[in-house]
Amino acid sequence: MQSSIVSEAKAIENELIAHRRHLHQNPELGFDLPKTTAYVMQQLREYGYAPKAVGKAGISAVIGPDGGKTFLIRGDMDALPMKEETGLPFSSINGKMHACGHDFHTSALLGAAKLLKAHESELKGQVKLMFQPAEEIMDGANDMIAAGILENPHVDAAMAMHVLHDNLGKAGYTRGTGCGSSDVFTIKVKGVGGHGAAPHLNVDPINVACHIQLALQTINSREINPNELIVLTICSIHGGTAANIMPDEAVMQGTIRTMNMDVKAFARQRLIDICEGVCKTFRAECEIDFIGDGIPPMYNDDQLLTDTIRYIDDLLGESTAQPIERMTGSEDFSALSVKVPSVLYWFGTGSTEEGYNYGVHDSRVTFNEEAIHRMAAVYTECAMRWLEEHQ
Questions:
Q1: Candidates 3.40.50.970, 3.30.420.40, 3.90.550.10, 3.40.630.10; correct CATH number of 2-179+296-389?
Q2: Structural domain boundaries of the chain?
Q3: Alpha helices, DSSP H only, in 98-252?
Q4: Same topology for domains 2-179+296-389 and 183-290, yes or no?
Q5: What digits encode the pLDDT tens for the residues 108-138?
Q6: 29, 35, 30, 32: which is closest to 134 by C-alpha?
Q7: Number of other residues whose CB lies within 10 A of the CB of residue 338
Q8: For the chain, what is the total number of helices (H) and then of strands (E)?
Q9: What is the rounded CA–CA span in Å between residue 156 and residue 169?
């Protein structure tokens, strides 16, 4: 079966690349994915599926006989709000960009859909396809879970892959926590505006924001056990419109990443405490807004990881699956990992040595399209083998 799946995936490679290039030229953001979801729905129907809308912009399709176990495979669909600078002939021209490779993920999952349809009679259970929106804003997986993606049929195991700036074809994994939690926050510091030459008559929100930025760093350096990982980063500060006008407000945005839910909760509360304390010190006020409850760290189920490592190495060659360092970044597939046994792999799509000089979230990033059919084969193989071994 192994060599057959690879050769079958290779045979539809041009079709999968065409999917990818279409999606790449038409990137959409967050939950606002009308063209993307229409395209995916159309392809699934052409492959013989009856896709269903799930949540705000998700899609689900199921294949295989009911009554057995269900294996879920996921591909995310959203892009980033950045202008593409790759110079590729199929570049985006709408000011958005698939700079994180979600066009690869969606195309690979469409490839798996076609391959699974060809092997439908061999399935020993059901495979659920999960096409997910809003991964970049860390909200799409939670939305689909709330809308019932893990039920009807109930999901027994789940798998996702994400592209990585690494050697082509390498499938990286981490035992235990594979990547960090994510809490996205906005801090609005409210002062009193006025003339810049008379600061004593005002309350300077920019000064307060600077003190908050420095004070927040002590959460990591002085309040968390050094054996625990935490990254708290302010990535945006905005305030003011002119050189001589003190603004009423300064706005800060950032994220917290951890590998431990207790540390996550502690850091969220201490951020609130510190912001309110600093603002009180300087006679300012603040509003703090988190996007929901955030997402947990990604936990890779040990037995499922052991099983899928074996499947991948059987499929693509020994040591294709390799351990890598855990990621401090986040992947909202982690929301599934606290509900059902799950695994997340990082699939190499070209290293610097192979001529791919930029990583994800860079406006110049490019990916080796040879990876798409391999990812489709991995999804197909892992789903079929796991169902066969867990009847």
A1: 3.40.630.10
A2: 2-179+296-389, 183-290
A3: 102-118, 140-146, 205-218
A4: no
A5: 999 999 999 999 999 999 999 999 999 999 9
A6: 30
A7: 14
A8: 10, 17
A9: 27
Task: For 52-92, write each residue's pLDDT tens digit.
Answer: 999 999 999 999 999 899 999 999 999 999 999 999 999 99
DSSP state of 245: E
Can you tell me the distance from the alpha carbon of 315 to that of 321, in angstroms, rounded to the nearest whole number? Answer: 10
Instruction: Supply 206's token pair.
Output: 């920019």
Q: Is 132 within 8 Å of 38 (Cβ atoms)? A: no
* Alpha carbons 125 and 120: distance in angstroms, whole number: 10
Is residue 52 packed enough to be buried (19+ CB in 10 Å), middle (13-18) or exposed (0-12)? middle
Nearest to 334 by CA among 129, 52, 26, 76: 76
Measured CA to CA, the distance from residue 340 to residue 337 in angstroms comes to 6
Q: Is 160 helix (H, G, I), strand (E, B) or coil?
A: strand
Lateral strand order in the sheet of 298-300: 298-300, 176-180, 327-330
In the block, tokens 């659920």 appear at 128
Domain spanning 183-290 has what CATH number?
Answer: 3.30.70.360
Rounded Cα–Cα distance for residues 254 and 356 (Å): 29
Separation of alpha carbons 376 and 374, rounded Å: 5
Exposed/middle/buried for residue 16 (C-beta within 10 Å: 0-12, 13-18, 19+): buried
Distances (CA, A) of 137 to 49, 110, 351: 29, 23, 26
Question: Each residue of 147-170: pLDDT tens digit?
Answer: 999 999 999 999 999 999 999 999
3-class SS letters over 287-311: EEEECCCCECCEEECHHHHHHHHHH
Residue 328 to residue 330: CA distance in whole angstroms? 7
CB 311 within 8 A of CB 385: yes
Q: Taking every pair of C-alpha atoms in the chain, what is the biggest distance, in angstroms?
A: 79
Backbone torsions φ then ψ of 275, nearest 5 degrees: -60, -45
Dihedral sign, Cα of residue 25, residue 26, residue 30, residue 33: negative
